[in-house]
Amino acid sequence: MTMSIEALRRTNAQHMLHPMIDPKAVAAAPPLIIDRAQGVHVFDIDGKRYLDTVASLWNVNVGHGRPELKAAIMAQLDKLAYFSTFQNTSNPPAIELSARLMQMFARENMKKVLFSSGGSDAVETAMKLARQYWQLQGKAQRTKFISLKLGYHGVHFGGASINGNPLFRTAYEPLMPGCFQVESPYLYRNPWGEADPARLARLCAEELDRAIQYQGPDTVAAFVAEPVQGAGGVIVPHESYWPLLRAVCDKHSVLLISDEVVTGFGRIGALCGARAFGVAPDMMAMAKGINSGYVPLGATLLNERVASAFEQPGVPAALMHGYTYSGHALACAAANANLDIVANEDLAGNAARVGALLNARLPEFMRYPHVGDVRGLGLMSALELVADRSGKAPLMVATPYVQTLVGAARSEGAIIRVQGNRLILSPPLVFTAADVDETVRILHAAFAHAERSLS
Ligand SMILES: Cc1ncc(COP(=O)(O)O)c(C=O)c1O
What we know:
By secondary structure, the chain is α/β, with parallel strands linked by helices. The chain has helices spanning 5-15, 23-28, 55-58, 67-79, 92-104, 119-136, 157-162, 197-215, 241-251, 273-276, 304-309, 329-344, 347-361, 400-412, 433-454; strands spanning 34-38, 41-44, 49-52, 110-116, 144-148, 179-182, 220-225, 255-259, 283-286, 298-303, 371-376, 381-385, 414-415, 417-419, 422-425. The chain contains 15 helices and 15 strands. Helix 4 (67-79) runs antiparallel to helix 12 (329-344), helix 5 (92-104) packs parallel to helix 12 and helix 13 (347-361) runs parallel beside helix 15. Residues 118-120, 123, 152-154, 226, 230-231, 259, 261-262, 287 line the site of pyridoxal-5'-phosphate.
């Protein structure tokens, strides 16, 4: 650090805009400044240690400060930091990563990858390639997208247009025309009042079917969804839901795009979320866990059906899409080392095992009157906060109760995240049973403190 601690705080307040928050709120409550990290812990500029229960932003899956990633990045840096993959140039780490990804997702019949710099890019790429795919099939009128209410697909204009939460949309409207949302399989709140997950899955799939028919199947390019909706509040569908989605898409020849930005690379106990539900999508948008956030990287994977459209002899199919940092050598080198760890340490299996321990403890929190629902799959969980249980009115992040809760967790030594009215837990996939115990202990202390503050 070249700046003093005070200068850091002052300069942050003066010059930095922070994503996803009103600048005035940052000025009122200055941010926690994280200075270093190791394993499942991070340290602030005052040296205080916190358990990272959110893997920073559901992405530092192999944990912080892994020497293997550092070594891979340093070794790559000694040879080549960057050279473009536009047109006819390439680089070895990107090529190696493409082969690994195809091997990892051979079961989903993935054949090609287009790299980018993050999740929003990966979604944007999938949407644009879906439209180009239909043009190449001679069906240029298939341009529309259908997605889920409460879905989150990043912040670019395409992704924002298919996001299913007005919070991410209204300030930037008008967005892209031709994007429509259907109900998500949200057991705690759904318009049918349906409390049976299998019946809810069927109702949702039927609604998708009707939406496609209403739009006209020949005008719909793709349906886009997260296997488990993350930012929307960890909405875990019934096991029948994704197979039903696949069947509806197939019935109308609509492409199925799985947004695996959070669920990719093990978080819900399988190497990708669609696989956890036994479904092979047509495209997958991936980022975060691909290299655990050590260097920004996104990837859009195309299956045989989509990839082959670009290879038809005599049909011009130039990809007029891509980013300066598509296939960035350092990012790809980090991904190759990261994916070795994911495989060697069976992080998907660990997420399933340790996630089961965590999710089994969550019902304990129903003893607090402001917890309305708890849910999770693998290392992806949420506690839904409500003002009152019977009315289910959301208890939002800006309320004194939630601010007290978050502050108390910090004092106890954990960073927790409340998105809207959902306390989200998405720890590194290297989490242990002891880390679960510590998370649960801190959360109990924080809830007890928040409850006391009300009286
Ligand atoms: C499901 C999903 N898709 C896309 C994104 C956007 O990724 P990024 O923030 O890397 O652009 C996110 C980010 O959290 C996400 O959760």
